Amino acid sequence: MSRALDRIGTWIGWAFFADLANGLALTFGYMFSKSVTMQYPDKEKWLPYSRYRGHHFLKRDEEGEIKCVACELCARICPCYCIEVIPYEDEKGNRRPAKFEIDMARCLFCGLCEDACPADAIALGQQYEFSSFSSRDLVIGRDDLLGKPGKAMTGGGVVAARLNTEQDVLVETSEPQGYNWWRNIRRT
Amino acid sequence: MELVVALGLIVFKVALLIAILLLLPLPLTWLERKIAGRMQQRMGPMRVGWHGLLQPVADGVKLLTKEDHIPAEADRFLFKLAPILALAPPFVVFVAVPFGESVSVLGTEITLYVSNMNVALLFVFAVIGIEVYGVIFGGWAANSKYAVLGSLRTCAQMISYEIPMGFAVIGVVMLAQSMSLLDIVRAQANVWNIVYQPVGFFVFFVAGLAESQRIPFDLAEAEGDLGAGFHTEYSGIRFAFFMVSEYAIMLLTSVLAVILFFGGWNGVLVPLPPLVWFVLKVAFFVYVFIWFRFTFPRYRYDQLMAIGWKVLLPLSMANIIITGVAFL
Ligand code: SF4
Ligand code: SF4
Q1: Is the pLDDT of residue B33 over 80?
Q2: For residue B60, is it within any domain?
Q3: Contact B63/B104 with Cβ under 8 angstroms?
């Protein structure tokens, strides 16, 4: 019985274009919802999560010395062969990298080097704006890597920013977290 | 002297009309992209000018400066003729379209139409039919399979939808006892035709959607399966011609819907100037066109034909018969 009623209901709905009207109502509703566009890079910028795999950085230990012991495991595991490590022995008799270069143009940001490192010396940080006009500039040396920003502490937010053509996109905000980008996603 | 003034007035009106029709696509494209963006939770153009207001100008400059490419195998004469054939009829049609009764400027009554033909409706349908040639020639001359397929589809679509469209307005003509668009609007001073002719309006609107080749009936230029349909091979200014023509037809369909079924410049409840009422109604229909475009998927080709011949045509016939019986 209810099946027959259903069918009649469907038929009436079909005759009066209820399905089309539903669709129209939906798009009309969406028209007044907030947009999810992130206006990068002129006005807003995304803060990556702490799990984000961005530009590598080399860590220092408590005494401020580079943690890397130049074991070359990262260079070995790297699927792109983009890390080059040349070890030397410093004054204290520790094995350290004399040369540590990553070719960012070839890196695929798999994070295997981070996993392989026995000394917890290398990791992929939060920086993601390092495009360049020359692939030669993308070979990053040891000292540059030491200065790169580390893992993000917060993340998943959008903050106000301004595009500066000389440098990066500058973050300009008092609140470090920004707003949660997911807030405007409609879940029905 | 009288003659000179009258002639000057006509020339001025025509020039104004052409200017408006040529410039309207600019804000319309912006509006369309903005509405599309909002419906998809995007922002639409934002970079050029305030909220992307100058985006259409930038696009126009881009189109004008692009290479005007003609394929090597193309029929050069037809290829050049097609955009003009597509562009001219929608402009010509507006000659017969009234936008209001008249306004008095400096003591002289100026009518808000170029000419009050007594067969205006026939004129509109006859001239707009020519537009199809632009599409067909364009597709044929380009010598590309996508373009030919697109124009073949258009050909069939136009033939099958012009008939119910023509039949749908017969009810209106019967009610007004006139084919003059001015008289049709005057006849709706009290009750709009939509009250008497809901079926007629439905058929007219659906057929109008198909005529102006908008989604859900944009098979002629189905991006998904035909590249860009009949204008696949067009670039630069000639492509812009097709775009302007498309918007002009969309505008024309809205204007006709308002004049034939929604009382033209007759307002309800709120006493606004007639011209404002007219513009508001047309704007509403233009919005509906855009709204439809970003809501519905495209019909399949056989469905399109089935709707045209099996639904719209019988409906419009029945509408005529019922209107006739009611008259008796
Ligand atoms: S992230 Fe992967 S590809 Fe990049 S340097 Fe590390 S191991 Fe090599
Ligand atoms: S970064 Fe880690 S894995 Fe790579 S050479 Fe240094 S200590 Fe070894």
Answers
A1: yes
A2: no
A3: no
